[in-house]
From TrEMBL:
Cell location: Cell membrane
A GO cellular component entry from the record: plasma membrane
Domain VTT positions: 42-164
InterPro entries reported in the protein's UniProt record: DedA_domain, VTT_dom
TM helices/strands, residue ranges: 12-35, 42-60, 66-84, 105-125, 145-167, 179-197
Membrane topology: Multi-pass membrane protein
Keywords, sorted A to Z: Cell membrane, Membrane, Transmembrane, Transmembrane helix
The name this protein goes by in its record: Membrane protein DedA
Length: 221
């Protein structure tokens, strides 16, 4: 990972020193962000931060940076989704233990809150990379996957680009305002905790409905 971070620094320096054309950088960024979106262990936020920094330095047009990063991310996610649609046959070969976990996740995505779940996962490193494959395995179609993925990816990409654009000033702000940083951290953890437990409870009910447990209980009473 350190070598990849060093590579990002080299790319940044080469653009700044005009040893690399902007179009070459665009191509590298597109491939980098697309592959990361498909699950390859590349520093996704690192590329976004450098792109934002290049915007701040005046080397990249802000609109072009936004379009590039969002399009690359969504492109990779859609490819993962399409690959996932080809992996549905593997679900029948999964052991019972993991089959229940997979059913749990699939019913979250296919349920009423699936749209919001697909938005939320774009903010969660690691989870977002494989959520696209799982969405492909589910009964969600590409159209219903594309919109929430684009929304979530757009919000996160623009946020990180803005951090890269502001550069060291944003880091100084959090260092000088440790209380603010701690408050943001607590709010974030609380928010994701609430979302997780709410979705967990919702998905358990969906699975019970599917298995007929609720129906059996009601008819028995």
């Amino acid at each position: 990972m350190e070598q990849l971070s060093n590579l990002l620094n080299v790319i940044y320096i080469n653009v700044i020193n005009l040893n690399m054309s902007i179009w070459t950088f665009y191509f590298i960024a597109f491939v980098w962000l697309s592959l990361d979106s498909m699950g390859l262990p590349l520093p996704y936020e690192g590329m976004l931060l450098i792109t934002g920094a290049l915007v701040g330095a005046g080397f990249i047009n802000p609109l072009e940076a936004i379009i590039l990063t969002i399009f690359s991310t969504v492109f990779g996610a859609c490819l993962s989704f399409l690959i996932g649609t080809r992996l549905k046959f593997l679900t029948s070969k999964v052991s019972t233990k993991y089959k229940n976990i997979l059913d749990h996740i699939l019913y979250l995505i296919e349920g009423e809150k699936g749209f919001f779940i697909l938005i939320i996962v774009r903010f969660l490193p690691g989870i977002r990379h494989f959520s696209s494959y799982i969405a492909g395995i589910s009964r969600v179609n590409l159209k219903d996957f594309f919109l929430p993925t684009t929304i979530g990816s757009s919000i996160w990409s623009i946020f990180v680009l803005m951090v890269g654009f502001s550069g060291i000033e944003s880091v100084k702000m959090f260092k000088e305002n440790s209380l603010l940083a701690s408050l943001i951290l607590v709010i974030t953890i609380t928010l994701f905790g609430y979302i997780y437990f709410s979705l967990h409870k919702h998905s358990k009910r969906l699975l019970k409905v599917k298995k007929g447990e609720i129906y059996e209980k009601e008819t028995t009473n």
